[in-house]
Amino acid sequence: xxxxxxxxxxxxxxxxxxxxxFLTRLAANTADLSRDALxxxxxxxxxxxxxxxxxxxxxxxxxxxxxxxxxxxxxxTGEISPLMLREVGVEIVEIGHSERRHVLHxxxxxxxxxxxxxxxxxxxxxLCIGETAQQKAQGIADExxxxxxxxxxxGMDPAQADRLMIAYEPVWAIGVSGVPASADYAQEKHAxxxxxxxxxxxxxxxxxxLYGGSVNDGNCEELIALPAVDGLFIGRSAWDADRxxxxxxxxxxxxxxxxxxxxx
Length: 264
Ligand code: PEP
What we know:
TIM Barrel; binds phosphoenolpyruvate
């Protein structure tokens, strides 16, 4: 993969003022880092997206939405359409985060409709997949990941693979009571995901697969060094701009891409 992807979803935590402050600080902190081989993205709440796009340039930080309805318009109270997201300058749409699947009971079929809709509208779907603790204990994690990919990407044109991103986020690893996956476990599951993507979209498909789930300053270097990990999708540890900047720099140092530092 010729690019490194580092991003965060701020969930339902930051107001407009908080988001603008966070983005402005993050853009300033990372201004010396070349974006040639690095994409930083932030996925804040819907209500913040307009101001968020105004406060930092898209070359510095890509913006994503946390969800999307799969129709262009219609009688879908409470839903946000791809046209609305495009209008405010969103490029990425997060689809199927574990909270949407397990708290709000979204299905693989629904995630699939959103993936296809996002691609149809020139948005970049970031499809989140991951097994629960119970599925892990039952020894069916690989099957679950394959099902989530096979249904989630059903009907997708392989020619659009370069717009797709996958986040592997084991449900048991996410959030305050989450335990980060061990390096061996993460590498094994990323390899399963990569094999499945090759099967579905062709051997040449260049789809970044990001790891998420309790990534922090202490484990980011080990995780990013794994051959099948193309980026990190970070929650709590990235919500402070200085801390996120620290993680970004650790990761770049670990990968030996201090060359990523922009020549002044
Ligand atoms: C997440 O919720 O997607 C996530 C990765 O959170 P955390 O890093 O806080 O576990």
